[in-house]
Amino acid sequence: MVENAASAPPPAPPASGSALGARIASALVLVPVALASVWYGGPGIVGLAALAAAVMAWEWGRLVGRTTGLTDSLLLAGIAAISVLIGAYVAAWCGLLAAAAGIVLQHRLVGSRNAAPIWTAAGLAWIIAPCIGFVWLRADPDGGAATVFWLLAVVWAIDTAAYVAGKTIGGPKLAPRISPKKTWAGLIGGMLAAILVGLATALIVGSDRIWQIALLSGMLAIVEQIGDMAESFAKRRFGVKDSGNLIPGHGGLLDRLDGMLAVVVAVVVLSLVTGGSVLTWR
């Protein structure tokens, strides 16, 4: 049964030492895989993006009560993975069209068993589009790899600094009714860390727009937090603590990548507006 935010379970207690250890261990496994995929590009990054989209779509279906069995789960996962593959090997816009068609198809097939059709559709779109965009960014021959490495570094720096600042400084909550753990100190810490990553990246790639890239990186901390809180709002809306338990110390893959999805969308939009990688601004 769908529960409203008021009946959602109380926030979980702060992560213990063992939970922090699990977070670190998970990062030591996942980070090298992500970096290697971005470095080599090609089928590796396409396969990783398609797999990530499939897993997150499956998690989202469970989160909103959409999936009632293996067939439902495979349908959502298949729509997500196939859309990303089409976006990578045909054209990004074709992948988006495939995603739209898949979302309509799954609604027509199981509409009577779907307790939250709008949430299902919106979540699938929010997952699939950034995954297609991630592959599209990497495919840019004029700085695609550098852009994606920068994007990953910015998001990881934001998450790490926000976690540390929030734990050590604490203080006023950012949005207590949506995400009780987040603080203004965490947001500011994340922004400062992102600015430093932006400065370092601009210097490494030899950009003439050092401060613009640094400030943009800092602003992405706000975007990342919005993406994170969007999923937190959905979890509280449906009375769910985590989207899954795939990653020790983090919950589901969607819990780990919710902020990154928002950042990818923002970077894709900026790239389209500026006509190329943000790191090649002159």
Helix content: over 70%
Profile the largest sheet. Answer: 2 strands, antiparallel
Spans of 5+ residues with little confidence (pLDDT < 50)?
A: 1-16
Tally of helical segments = 9
Could you say which overall geometry the principal axes of the C-alpha atoms support?
globular
Strands, count? 2
Report the β-strand fraction as a percent range.
Answer: under 5%
Radius of gyration: 19 Å
Give the overall average pLDDT: 86
Structural class: mainly alpha
What gap, in angstroms, lies between the N and C termini? Answer: 54 Å
Helix-strand string:
HHHHHHEEHHH
Number of domains: 2
User: Reading side by side through the largest sheet, how are the strands ordered?
Assistant: 1-2
List the helices and strands and how they pair.
Blueprint: H1 17-40, H2 42-63, H3 70-89, H4 92-110, H5 117-138, H6 144-168, E1 173-175, E2 179-183, H7 184-205, H8 210-237, H9 253-274
Antiparallel strand pairs: 1-2
Helix pairs in contact: 1-2, 2-3, 2-5, 3-4, 3-5, 4-5, 5-6, 5-9, 6-7, 7-8, 8-9
Q: Would you give an account of this structure?
A:
The chain has 282 residues and is mainly alpha-helical. Helix content is 72%, strand content 3%. The protein has nine helices and two strands, in the order ααααααββααα. The protein has helices spanning 17-40, 42-63, 70-89, 92-110, 117-138, 144-168, 184-205, 210-237, 253-274; strands at residues 173-175, 179-183. Strands 1-2 form a two-stranded antiparallel sheet. Strand 1 (173-175) and strand 2 form a beta hairpin. Helix 2 (42-63) packs antiparallel against helix 3 (70-89). The N and C termini lie far apart (54 Å).
